[in-house]
Amino acid sequence: MKIDGQCLCGYISYEANVDRDRVMICHCTDCQASSASAFRTGVMVRKDNFRLLTGQPKIFVKTAQSGAKRALAFCPECGTSLYGSDVVEPKSYSLRIGTARQRHQLVPKKQIWHYSALSWVAEIEQIEKFELQPSVRA
User: Fold this and answer.
1) pLDDT for res 138
2) Measured between alpha carbons, how far is residue 41 from residues 24, 64, 103, 123, 131 in Å?
3) pTM of the predicted structure, to 2 decimals
4) What is the third-level CATH fold of 2-126?
């Protein structure tokens, strides 16, 4: 499937060909911290199926619990997380699907590092919902 996307401010844009069966949720604590959320959702993309159209991401090298180093790419202007990859000569990228224009079509097929999942994630459907931002009273 051909997708395209960009960071929040639009400084970085890309296009990619992805396999929708490779979309996954990661519950590891590194992904929780780097996404500032309960989990990260990504799709693995081979290097030859990914192309930056505009901008150049900033890279942060993170050492995982296993000792492996990962390059985490983000927009230097707005901070949007874009992908993770091997530090030296990456063969693929874990593209963050929240940046893809077609994100509604990229349904996760598996969850990894589930032992780190926040307990409330399983009950998210039971949490009160609002279609838009509710009014806030001071």
Assistant:
1) 63
2) 6, 18, 10, 18, 22
3) 0.86
4) 2.170.150
